[in-house]
Amino acid sequence: MGERVGLVLAGGGARGAYEAGALSLLLPELERWGQRPTVLVGTSAGALNVVCLAADADLDAERASARLVERWLGVERDDVFRPIVRRQAPVSAMRYAGEVVGVPGVGLPGLLDPAPLRASLDRLIDWSAMHRNVRRGALDCVAVTASDAAVPRSVVFVEGRRQRELPSARAVEYVTAELSGDHVRGSSAIPVLFPAVRVEVPARARGWYYDGGTRLNTPIKPALDLGADRLIVIATHSIAPRRGEFWARSDSRPDFADGALQLLQATLVDPMLEDVRMLGKTNLLVGRRGAPAAVTAYRKAQGKAPYRRVPYMFIAPPTRSALGDAASAVFRRRYGGLRGLRAPDVAILSRLLGGESEQHGELISYLLFDPEFHQQAIALGRLDAERWLERISGPDAPWCAAPIDTLPDS
């Protein structure tokens, strides 16, 4: 068996279009080199992207990646959540009031109602084709991550492996499943904004689930545990050094939007950065000839798998504000000022997520399911994938084994 290429796609809501753009360049290039990802693992928007790719795994890479881009260009706000003004606001207000006064069985499960997403997933994804591609061996496995609402752990639902073939880990539970829209919706249920999703199958993991990004936004470890020998990691958040918080450049007091950005940084970006750094450091330790004998012996005594060298590609926005700036520009052009009267739902979300502040773009980009924003995010993804291919040189190119912090700037 040749080397398995793993594809790791992070979460990010509407930012998932960025991943589609990067893949539209990378996948055809890889196929020309005789390589194609067969271990697909995604979280939230990344989960949607991996199941779309899995459904098209019988197509050539050019067509499969083009179809993924087409899907994103066709997604709009009403495909993801119900209108706020006409449908959600009255119901949410009544539910919230009922919860405050203690009406039995009445509560507010989330600020937004993602009911349309169920039908949208069935429209976007040919589930039968995905199951067939896995069954026939076009893919080694496809997996999506979610966060268990009852227990502090991540659950990775895996199609293509028997339960006895899956690894065992303390913080992550691996469960064999025939993937469905419920698993993807659970992986995408951002806490507070969206209600938890009930997953009934398989029985051993029956329960309520939230967005996998709350614990495992960039599932590098699951891809390695599932046997990937090389990794393509596409993130929707930059790991570039921070240039100072938005509010630090003025005397204004940090507000709700600033606090939300701090939570996103701690939950989504910081763990990803450490995982990518660890990948490079491990490669440095192992080298081309394998880990030192003493290290291998120690890990064997501890009952752990030996370290191994895993070349990787890492595609992410070059700056913290790249996608946020794009979202801000689209928002001002399409929904700013009086134009917002044509789309009051967007205006409400905008005020909730920072108004016209500098933080606004970063936060609204998660929920700006707008074809124009998707188009810009796709273009940025392609540009950053091209930048990676240009900056990596050496015997492994375009794969990299060095620590991410040592790579030259593009």
Fold and architecture overview:
- The chain contains 15 helices and nine strands.
- About 5% of the residues have low confidence.
- With 410 residues, the chain is α/β, with parallel strands linked by helices.
Distance between the termini: 35 Å
Number of strands: 9
In percent terms, what proportion of residues is strand? 5-15%
Order of helices and strands: EHEHHHHHEEEHEEHHEHHEHHHH
The major pleated sheet works out as: 9 strands, mixed
Instruction: Name the poorly predicted regions.
Output: 85-103
Choose one word for the global shape.
globular
Average of the residue pLDDT scores? 84
Helix content: 40-55%
So how many helices? 15
Helix/strand class: alpha/beta
Rg from C-alpha positions? 21 Å
Give a quick precis of the structure.
This protein is α/β, with parallel strands linked by helices and 410 residues long. The protein is built from 15 helices and 9 strands.
Question: What key attributes describe this structure?
Answer:
single chain, 410 residues, alpha/beta, nine-stranded mixed beta sheet, globular
Q: How would the blueprint of this fold be written?
A:
Layout: E1 5-9, H1 16-32, E2 37-43, H2 45-55, H3 61-73, H4 84-101, H5 115-124, H6 127-135, E3 141-148, E4 154-159, E5 172-176, H7 181-187, E6 197-199, E7 207-211, H8 213-216, H9 220-225, E8 230-234, H10 256-286, H11 293-301, E9 312-315, H12 322-335, H13 344-352, H14 360-364, H15 371-391
Parallel strand pairs: 1-2, 1-8, 2-3, 4-5, 8-9
Antiparallel strand pairs: 3-4, 3-7, 6-7
Helix pairs in contact: 1-2, 1-3, 1-15, 2-6, 12-15
